[in-house]
Amino acid sequence: MRKFSFETACSRGNEAVDELLRRETNSACRSSKQVLRNMDADFLDGNTWGERNLDPFIKISVIVPVYNPEEKWLRQAIASILNQTLHDIEVILVDDGSTDNFPQICDDYALKDSRISVIHQDNRGLGCARNSGLKAASGKYVLYVDADDWIERNACEILYRKAEKDDLDVLFFGVTGFDEQKKESHIYDDFSQLPPSVFQKTLCWQDDEVSNHLFRINQTAWSKLFRRDFLIRNNLFFRESLQFEDSEFFYRFVFKADKLGFIPDCLYCYRQNVPNSIMGGRDRRHFDVLTVADFIKAALQENGVFEQFEIQYYNWKYPVVNRRYQDIKKEFKREFKKLIVENFHRDGLTNSKLELLSRKVRKIHGFFLKRKHFLSIFFQNIISYLGRKRGTPNHRLVRVVYSWKGDDRRHNWIFDNVEFTTEKVKKCDLLVVLNASKKAVEVKARQAWCLTFEPPVPEVMDGFKNLFGHYDKVYTACKSDAHSNIINTTALSEWWIGKSHHDLLTLPIPEKEDRVVWVTGNLDLLEGHRKRMAFLNYVRQNADFEIYGKGMDPIDSKWPVYRHAKYTMGIENTFADDYWTEKIADSFLAYSMPIYYGCPNIGKYFPEEAIIRIDIEKPHEAMDIIRKAIEANWWEKNFDAVVKARELVLNRFWYPRFVIHEMKKTNFDKLNYRKFKIPKFRP
User: Fold this and answer.
1) Separation in Å, CA 511 to CA 8, 95, 564
2) Distance of CA 507 to CAs 4, 593, 643, Å?
3) Which of 94, 379, 502, 581 could form a disulfide with 129 if both were Cys (CB 3.0 to 4.6 A apart)?
């Protein structure tokens, strides 16, 4: 009867009656939930919790694990929740085996406010307490609040509106820290490391705004609002009897969520330097950080993204482990260090991978392994070599043949168990020739690929085409029906920015100025060369650009002149689909915005917002576009797109990454070794 009256009121659009009946209905529904007050938590481990229906009148279930906090802090936490501007909430206090009078305090609150229910259980840890709360929850969304923290008065209302508006699975929000010893407040996390655009859209973990910061985003459970059915459907419960369970939980749910949202508002107040908290202690519980790190690695591997996040993972793992080692009591240090050394050895990091880690992380790694470090690397290399000899399935060897030298030629790399080498090995899984070889190549391999980066014009490609038949696959922008093994695409081989791949991965954003820099040559062999020179002469007469290059103002590297320029000229010598070169890549790598003429379908590879397109055959219009871009500060407005393009250059189109991406499409274990004879290139 009440439900009918409520629906009738809504249909009539009587907001006053609507609000009144809604509150009355909520009270009736909530009063029935008091049965949970003295229910043993074992009951919740049955199937009945999974059959619980969402209460349409409860918007958010706030779950508060309670284990012997300061009484005044607990009361402050509960008061901050009950005084929310959003009234349609429920509060689930999970008494996790508290002593003294805390069970009674929780029960007293439940008697005073029908929105509160209590679960009493034996002490099983924070994870188990949160799981019990989730199983009892009936709201559309779930919010975790620790018993010694509190939330802002409008927190639930802001979070609910944002989650509903964008239909989110998880909503991240900012946190204020309060130092209990110093009695000072400060910003704990307001996502200042994220680009401003992140707050205007919904995301998933694949988006660069998330993936680029995956190991820097706050991993705690209490700084997020979760859709309840999202957690239940994906079985997203906390691992019990485990310290630091928040971090492990984070890397399970983030890969499951289709819609992530962020707001910078600091709505949660985290009390720091709290003695005797549920997360306190400097004992053996710190050992769990190693287990959690292994769980996170397993989660990355299960989702097929460990290769993508490997460097981020180790840059996160080693400082976290070291911090726990420094904090643990002296009596446990020796035992803990032994476990750390064993764990770090299992990581099996080679010298080439260690080079990609930050200097701080390498020092931590070396500190724990000490003298054994060199020997471990040595034996790892021996094992790697033997694995190649025996054809171990989880290790791939790629021999690379250059036709020119580049910044990274002196290095070999290992990514996702794929090793790239320029050594003249007799046997490998894959032979990759970049453009063509100046000397004949003979090698046993399962396949041979050619990656060409020269302009797809007859004057250049006719000589290359004669070699295409020697390869299983040819990746090129050249449109040709001469061979069935041609794959029309592009893959960046190298850059001329004057820095290695490792340097560029760790490169901070330099200070930028409203400058336009053009580094070019004076060749006139192709039609495109001549068009570029004509436009160059026009620019010299009509603009104040900084121009460098052969025949003008020669430089050894682009980096010194690119680093402070917001805009750089990138004029290709060939205007063709799927053909682009370092002319645009170098600009992105320097955090600059390219003023670009070339590949018509460049939007297939990079965000259009990151590029200023011009037509050099229309110089007057081109200059107008450039002036407008500078005046409107397109670099700043589209910087997020530039950063995304930069990440693509480094992690997708750099040729080792490109090759690995393509290798995943082929089952090399089913291929036999063949002898390849690649003749030298004769122009």
Assistant:
1) 62, 53, 6
2) 64, 17, 12
3) 94
Strands 413-415 and 418-421, by their bridges, are antiparallel
Query: What digits encode the pLDDT tens for the residues 27-83?
Result: 333 333 333 333 333 334 444 444 455 667 899 999 999 999 999 999 999 999 999
Q: How far apart are CA 257 and CA 234, in angstroms?
A: 9
Last residue within a domain, chosen from 351, 368, 388: 388
395, 350: one domain: no
- Residues 65 and 107: their CA atoms lie apart, in Å, by 14
Per-residue pLDDT tens digits for 271-308: 988 765 444 557 888 999 999 999 999 999 888 889 88
What's the domain count of the chain? 5
**Alpha helices by DSSP H, 68-154:** 71-82, 102-112, 126-136
| Domain encompassing residue 7 | 1-31
> Tokens at residue 169, please?
């699975």
For residue 35, give the DSSP letter. G
Structure tokens at 517: 């820099």
The amino acid present at 470, given as its one-letter code, is: H
Give the whole-angstrom CA distance, residue 531 versus residue 588. 24
Residues 217 and 201 in one domain: yes
CATH number at residue 266: 3.90.550.10
Exposure letters 354-368 (e unless 16+ CB within 10 A, then b): eebbeeebbebbeeb
* Model confidence, pTM: 0.53
Residue 4 to residue 1: CA distance in whole angstroms: 5
User: 237-250 burial string, b = 16+ CB within 10 Å, else e?
Assistant: bbbeebbbbbbbbb
CA 418 – CA 408 distance, rounded (Å)? 17
